[in-house]
Amino acid sequence: MQKGVVVIGGGIAGIQASSDLANRGFKVYLVEKSPSIGGRMAQLDKTFPTMDCSMCILAPKMIECVRHPNVQLLTYSEVKDVKGSVGNFKVRVLKKPRYIDERKCTGCGICAENCPSEAPNEFDENIGMRKAVYMPFPQAVPRVMVIDKDNCLECGLCDNVCPANAVNREQQPEEIELDVGAVIVATGFDVFDPSVIPQYGYKRFQNVITAMELERTLCASGPTGGHLIRPSDGKIPRSIAFIQCIGSRDRRKWINHPYCSSICCKYAVKDAVLIKEHEPDSRITIFYIDMRAFGRGFQEFVNRAKSEFGITFTRSNPGEVSEDPNTNNVVVWFEDPITRTVQHASFDLVVLCPTLIPRKGVEELAKTLGAELDSYGFFKSADAVKKPLDTTVSGIFACGYCVGPKTGDIPDSVAQGSATASRVAEVLARLEVA
Amino acid sequence: MKYAFFLGCLIPAREPGYENSVRKIASELGIELEEMEGANCCAPFSIQSVDYISWLALAARNLCIAENMGLDILTLCNDCYESLLMTNTMLKEDKEIRNKVNEILADVGLEFKGKTNVKIFSDALYEDIGLEKVKNAIKEPFNGLRVAVQPGCHLTKPKRIHFAELAAAAALDDLVEATGAKSITYERKESCCGGPLRGVNDEVALHIAKQKLDGVKAAGADCIVTVCPFCYFELDMGQLEIKRHLNEEHNLPVLHFAELLRMAMGMKLEDWEVRAHRIPLTKILDMKEVK
Amino acid sequence: MSSLDAYFMREVANTPRGRGVLACIQCGRCTSSCLVARVVEEHNPRKLVEMIILGLRSEVLPGPLPWYCLSCFTCLDRCPQGGDVGETMFAIRNLAVREGNIPEGIAAQAQSLFETGRVVTPSRMALINREKYGLGKEPAVNVEAVQKILRKTSFDKLIYRGP
Amino acid sequence: MEEEPRIGVFVCHCGVNIGGIVNVPEVTEYAKKLPFVTYAEHNLYTCSEAGLAAIKTAIKEYNLNRVVVASCTPRTHEPLFRGTCKEAGLNPYLFEMANIRDQCSWVHMHEAEKATVKAKDLVRMAVAKAALLEPQTEPEVEVKDVSLVIGAGVAGMTAALSMANQGFKVYLVDRDKEPGGIVRRLYKLYPTLADSSEVIDPLIEVVKSHKNIDLLTSMTLKEVLGYVGNFHVTLTSSGGDKDIDVGTIIVACGALNYRPPKGLYQYGVYDKVITQEELDGVLKRGNVGEPERIVMIQCVGARKGEIRPSELEAFPRSDTAELLRKILKARKEEGWPYCSRICCMNAIKNAILVKERSPKTDVVILFGDLRVYKEYEDFYRMARDLEVRFVRHIEEVPPEITQRSDGKLEVAAYDALSGLEVKFPTDWVVLSTPLRPRRSEVLLARMLKVPISTDGFLMEAHLKLRPVDTNVDGVFLAGTVSGPKDIPESIISGEAAAARASILMGNRKVVTDAITAVVDEGLCIGCGLCEEICPYGAPKIEDRKSKVREILCRGCGSCAAECPRRAITMRHFGEHQVLAQVKALLMPEA
Q: Is this structure's pTM higher than 0.95?
């Protein structure tokens, strides 16, 4: 058995890094903040271009990863302290109490069925509700419930109905100390809150939603059972507008995300095609600045979206939207790029494509690790060209979106996960020789 | 508090009621207003459009006068505020341009040193006097009055641009609510009154004013309150023209914020001041009568 | 199509307040936010910047295009690049004035400023009323100083035309 | 088969994916009545931990010796369910899957009743086959801890170095005399504007001196035999051949800059019409001078045309080489349909370099969409601050280039602003061309049996989740061989390929699929048709009999179908098993 490695974050990048390292013979501690691994990819509906259901290709990878004898999974856990240097890190992990005995819980869900308290479902972007005792999603790994103490009424119903006697209200936070040779950070991204730019109407108008909310709505296991309905009246939207670059390519001081997120054009086209497949009669317009369909097969996909699916691409970024108070339709104000005049068009639903931003709390983690962040707040590369995935601390690597929009999409995240595994193996092997 | 009082051109020429209300409030709240001897026009957009350096030099001359008085400037007008604030900020930050301007000012025996600050009436109340003190001065609150606040572009935007600060409009909202009234939200609250296009393209100016008034009307406001004399003029006088040219009647009384505050502090408007409003204030005055 | 002036963008960019023209990524938010553009088809800030980049000097400077802007700065507020179309407009106007393109209203205000130190001068009636209302005399302007400054900047040459 | 089949059937709801259309409980009840079915249940997600636990429990409790799962698709889930059977002590090949989602609920979304009937048919067929399943053993082979990296560009060198540092022996082969690939020929790199030598030289130095790396330059591949863990490769050079034995192969032979055919945008007609690559050379030599204007045209030979259906039809994997040849021919004239990802930044980089050397030069970039993704936005801004002019033109009308009487060139383009033609007199016209696949990939792809994608680049095993693997075990892709990438992206893919190869080599052994062809030597007449048809080179005629090398066989079944004597059968897909399924479909009562 070789030196251990801590992987922080159980999204697709962290899963890939963990699997590769485990298969390479390293002991891997996969530390995930939330109750389940899966990350952002678990929330997506389908993925371009195979249109595989995202969860369907992810689930086997999640299970394969945690079943590996070399992988120890620490969910609902956070890295609190890191000491030492490459080859010899001491990592202190805090395991938060689930108030459920992980060894006993079978994930049958009877507790949740009986729980009287509800809270917004974070996994569904708060569209639907979940219980106070819950599992984030049906394919969660590990398949263990968690009690959300903030919303728990302490009624004790779950204690009584649990057939496995797994509820443990006395559970305390647990500290675990790990001796490892290297650390991989794969903490992913947050989505920019579009209500910061009030003129796009998010949180003001019901029928303005984010792309992530749309993904959950389109997803068969999502809050609407995969039925595309709009929030105001539950009707099927017949006309839908996508607005690109919400908060990205934005240098305004109070927004300050000057980079391009690299993925929004691509997922918007994918979502538009998915909607067309759901509802062939819908009228879809994508408002964009530059259509950034780079990467394998995307340009061809955009061509198809135009010619085959009849999706309208309008090269114009709307400045504002307003609401028709009678219908709750959203009126988009934009410059018609052909007539070069200001037009307004009414849509049943408007989908905003917000930029991806550093995870909340990443500064704190960076401080714990001693690693530097770049001017955007992502993990800084030791060398942007030569060592893109090495952080500024030797022996600590980063992959996935926490290194910023270097990640185009899922395959880039997977490649980065593998690449950091390689970097770890390389660096630790050289230490051994030395 | 003591300020160098910058009156500008428009207020003495057309809106003496505004000045009157400010002076009355100032004396009630213990604010001293020191006249700026020989001050010139702020150099608004029309002048900025002609020549950049002339604008800066003229605005800087006013700033120098205040500097020599050792006081911060109090303005009553959004355009004066914008011009003086922008100039002050730019000259403080940019050495090159400051030297250029000082070279011109040397001819009139002045030098910009960067020692004054520029405040508009609402900000001065909010930042220097404090919301509490204003609230304490309210004797006859406008409970139930639905006010559409028109902050005006040049109150909020220079700040937002240069200081990334979003609070300027909110300060005015808070002050209006201190009088007991409710500051309602309406479509295009942040948008322009159309005033700057007066004299250049009156028809377009009127259309823009109409869009604004439509939004206010739809939100069910009792009146419009503003700190800007241009917005005041455009929205008040503009309603008559909209009625005449576009055949649409809004009938929304427009008040200077200072007038609203003054009344809430228990000081009645003079007859000549009431008469100066083209859209009658009857509804609002009646409210006071009932009290 | 008029002839192109390749250096027009450079000219604007190097005029005070004109740097914003370089920020443009041609997204169109300025135009779709512009109140004037909704009423006046001819006025289109994004198009104006594109015209500058392309070099359409002879179409931009002489006509009415520089003079529609309200200076409401909505575009400045919305431009994701922190570019200043509203600001750029002043750069274009300054250039237009030098080409002899100055609307009457602007010229009148500028002349008033030069002559009285104010862009708006109170009527006799207003002055009488001031005293009646107890507001005292209107503060006097040091017109001499104003003219000294404006002569130095050659402002007077820009606003008085003709023989 | 001695033991009576005892089949357990697990029907998956897949949330609402299946359960929302197919009546899953009804299908389960139906399954219970089928022959040999001992047990049936339905699960919300059979692939979840709870579902898998239920399978294991049922195997023990009901002493099941066959398992059928009716769910999504074997493509993603078969390994998982097989693994579960194995964990429960059952041979993994005693598992069968009925695809009632991809091939049933998804395609019959609007006809729920019929979908339920079809699901029953599919389950019945799977059960019929399951009853006849036999246990299989997966062959295990040794893996040599030596790797071959083809191509010593930045991706190949990175991959080689990563493996070498992990202690593996690496052969790094390049057709050129010097390592460094396309990057070595570049002048400056975006967005740092550092000399390319700053990146490539240290890498070359380490690679040359590393004790674990055998750098073989001026060499190409002649033949690849063998299979994962045991490739036997013949390299060739002017000096003769060299044979090596390696466990893994990383293909990193890069891509080429598309060179426009003579006449396209007057390229090759006027010598001041050049490509970005050539401008790079001009800048490197310091020859740019102080031209009045340079006009750059984006997407020359990229994002042009669409893949024609005929090209798609030519897609069968067995003939990738032929496909690529056809694609290359068609694309030479009209360019490539994809976006090459790096050209926008390349143009901006060169524009900045020109501006730095000659600030007065007017640099115009004619573009349709500017794809300066990620943090390259800052780089784009830098160019704008240097007064580079970005003019959007109507891409559908290619700009025309003429020479004026004074010798200057003139670019006439339709600008997107007015829709009218505008003319730019200019000293240079610079064409931004895409990276394109190498022609030599034809040979390489054939030797390695790696399929080629419709865009002409080598194809990864799964576009999303296996970006550096190929569908040939032991062969991996790094760098631009699988599509345009910039330098950091190439480095990442090099490291990723190294990680994947190192797993195999570190474990020293690999287990492969048991579904392979079996020859009944009594029936075989040694005609050699199987050898001819097999895309993987598995069968070989020895002593007038076909011998299938299991490790090479991918179980595609081409040989079994082709064999005139029906001497070849497929493990796990025996004729009797398939026919039982057909019979179950056509004669449900039997």
A: no
Q: Phi and psi dihedrals of D392, rounded to 5?
A: -80, 125
- Across chain A, which has 434 residues, the per-10-residue mean pLDDT values are 87 98 97 97 87 86 91 97 96 97 84 94 94 92 93 94 90 96 97 93 96 92 88 96 96 91 94 92 96 88 91 95 94 93 96 96 96 96 94 97 86 96 94 76
Measured between alpha carbons, how far is residue B21 from residues B139, B282, C73, D113 in Å? 16, 19, 29, 79
- In chain C, residues with a C-beta closer than 8 Å to the C-beta of B36 are 139
Give me the architecture of the B2-121 domain, per CATH. Up-down Bundle (1.20)
Counting as contact any 3 or more CB pairs under 8 A, the partners of B are A, C
D422 in contact with chain C, both atoms CB, cutoff 8 A: yes
A140 lies in the same domain as A230 = no
Q: Tell me, yes or no, whether A270 and A289 share the same domain.
A: yes
CB contact under 8 A, D76 and A57: yes
* C131: closest CA of chain B, how far (Å): 10
Nearest-by-Cβ selection for B201 from C68, C97, C134: C68
Nearest CB partner across the interface for D373, out of A262, A410, A425: A262
What pLDDT, in 10s, does the model give residues D116-153? 999 999 999 999 999 999 999 998 999 999 999 999 99
The type of residue at D423 is K
Residue A182 belongs to domain with CATH number:
3.50.50.60
| Total number of domains constituting chain A | 3
Asked if residue D488 has a cis previous peptide bond (ω within 30° of 0), the answer is no
Residues 48-107 of B with CB under 8 A from C: 48-54, 57-58, 61, 104-105, 107
**Best C22, C48, C49 residue to mutate vs chain D (most D CBs within 10 Å):** C22
- What value of ipTM does the predicted structure carry? 0.92
Q: Can chain B be said to touch chain A, i.e. do they have 3 or more Cβ pairs within 8 angstroms?
A: yes
The values of phi and psi at residue D13, to 5°, are -80, -25
Chains B, D in contact, 3 or more Cβ pairs below 8 Å: no
SS (HEC) of A411-426: HHHHHHHHHHHHHHHH
CA–CA dist A276, A34 (Å, integer)? 34
Domains observed in chain C: 8-98 (1.10.1060.10), 104-159 (no CATH)
Task: Identify the burial level of D49 via C-beta atoms within 10 angstroms of its C-beta, where 0-12 means exposed, 13-18 middle and 19 or more buried.
Answer: buried
Q: Which domain holds residue A114?
A: 110-154
Judge whether A89 lies within some domain: yes
B131-290 CATH: 3.40.50.11810
Record: contact C126-B107, CB cut-off 8 A: no
